[in-house]
Amino acid sequence: MANLVSGGGTKAGTAGGTLLSVLVNISSGDILHTCVLAAVGAVVSFTVSILLKVLFQRFKRKHPPPKGM
Question: At residue 31, does pLDDT exceed 70?
Fold first, then answer.
């Protein structure tokens, strides 16, 4: 009865089978393509973050907050 309630083995088996079926159907070209896109995305994200940081710093220098705040 305890086996029917927990179901941990069924979930693990289902997850493992799904993962293996996906891995079998992915080609090395797809993996390379995904890695390149991930690297490009990381570089673009980093560049935009740095650019926004510089722009906000310049804006704060040119437009300081009012003295009463």
Answer: yes
Q: Identify the sign of the CA torsion 29, 34, 39, 43.
A: positive
Task: Report the number of distinct structural domains present in the chain.
Answer: 1
pTM for the model: 0.57
Say how far apart CA 60 and CA 56 lie, in whole Å.
6
Our CA angle for 57, 62, 66, nearest 5°, is 100
Q: Domain limits at 11?
A: 2-62
Q: What is each CA distance from 49 to 26, 30, 39, 52, 60, in whole angstroms?
A: 33, 28, 15, 5, 17
